[in-house]
Amino acid sequence: MSILFANISTPQNITDFLPAAPAGWKIAMEDKMYDSKSLYDYIDGGAELYISYGMKEVISRFITNETRDEIRIEIFDMSESKNAFGVFTHTRTQNEGIHGQGSQYFPGTQIFWKDRFYVSIMATDENETIRSAIEDLASEISNKITTTGKMPDIVSLLPEENLTEDGCIYFHHYIWLNSYYYIANDNIFGIDKHTNAILAKYGSKENRHYLLCIEYANEEKSDSAYSVFKTQFLDQQSDETAMQIEDGSWLGGTTCGKYLICLFNAPSKTEINKLIGKITENIQR
Amino acid sequence: MKSKTITRRKLLKNSTLAAIGASLFFTSPMKIYGKSRQGNLSRVVLIRDKNILDENGNVNKALLEKMLDEGLVKLTGMKFREDAWAQIFKPNDVLGIKTNVWTHLPTPRELENLLKEKAIGMGVIPEKISINDRGVKNDPIFQKSTALINVRPMRTHNWSGVGSLLKNYITFAEDLPAYHPDSCADLAKLHNLPVTKGKTRLNILVMFTPLFHGVGPHHYNKKYVWNYYGLIMGFDPVAVDSTGLRILQAKRKEYFGEDQPLNPPAKHIMLADTRHKLGTADPGKIELIKLGWEEDLLI
Questions:
Q1: Interface contact B103, partner A, CB < 8 A
Q2: What is the rounded CA–CA span in Å between residue B286 and residue B244?
């Protein structure tokens, strides 16, 4: 989480990263490339996720072996490293840190991000042969991407104490506001491609609370978002920035310059003040 | 601030909204069969049989027929299965069975064929029955249909929260991306298109092996599929989807060990009720009849 990488823009193209078929495997068909318009033709029902994170293009390669196992290799150019990191945080439940700048293996599926690229290697099944092939493919692609990217600065603002390991999602499309905890059905905080937002989990499962931090273009916009927070979540008759609500949990919020900071489902006012104090300190540092 | 905004705080303060929103975001042809029999309640039948699938995931056709018959008898309130099916199919029907062919979790072929057999048994002419998904816009039977059966498996979805009955009519749309804004908030409109409006006779949400979480671009991993062995049947697609969603949410909580809301929330199910008035998503207004295997029911 705290490791930041040099933001070196890369001239490399996603076609440069396509791996050779491992021994015993062969390329099954011609590689295919899609952009944000044609992605709908390729990903059945899932294109919007990648488009919401600024996807520029994706290349896919199918490989197969004698036993007709299939592996689908997809390399997404997400335009910027923050987008590749963001789409990775959307999917991963833990960062195993084996490939690229962050990776996770699910049965038959390897995902990782590096620089502005997000990679998915997915098999129709899983066995030792497939797992080994996926491992080789991931290593090769990761090595071919010779540059690294920078995580969004907003990630480094998160207080580390009690932060759930790999428990944050970075986004700049409002649809992902409710990723860990239902907050609102609409874009009440004006999240768009000009904002950076992070939602983070704190505490144990039994004592879970959620910190939302949004970076706006300027203070006027963060103040405006705070007014919405106060109207929608706090007691409008009071100047209190935190309050205990109907389900017994505490919520609170504030602004710090161009940042809006909100805490949800906190166990106490003390916890809210502590977390807000710490992130404010990090912003001002 | 627009009044349509529903925040968590608003849900906690407003008991009417809370009833729907607590199961968060948690339908019906123009004519809701069976609804009038239960006053304002939408009747939904959840029927399960732990032997419906063999060890290789194959469907036991005899048990499937038993599940369908028993479920429909309860749903219609009829005494005999023939009378129940007669509520669904008329001999002069032109019938479209709207299935789903998603690679990883399609509608079971056995269920499609059984529904066709039931329709033929009620006198529908075989040549006037079609089973289709992505080709419905070019299928003359669907285009001339007098009756539709909406049948598909339940799964989570990258953009709409879940892929279920409300979303299953997306292939009737002339402009698919027009339904994408706000995480597919207005999918209920699909049930009011000229080709679909008022035609759906029965909704069946297949819960044999639902997908409760998705990873990767294709949103599928067998790790997140579990054997539930159920069917959810109803005349109100919103009520059926709402019921399936509650089961999915419960599975997610059980699996992850904490609340893990669908991402994004399946708001289109709630909006099908509150905005489009297609049916009810409110569990308090759903008469849920549970039949069969009770272990790990999750609802």
A1: yes
A2: 12
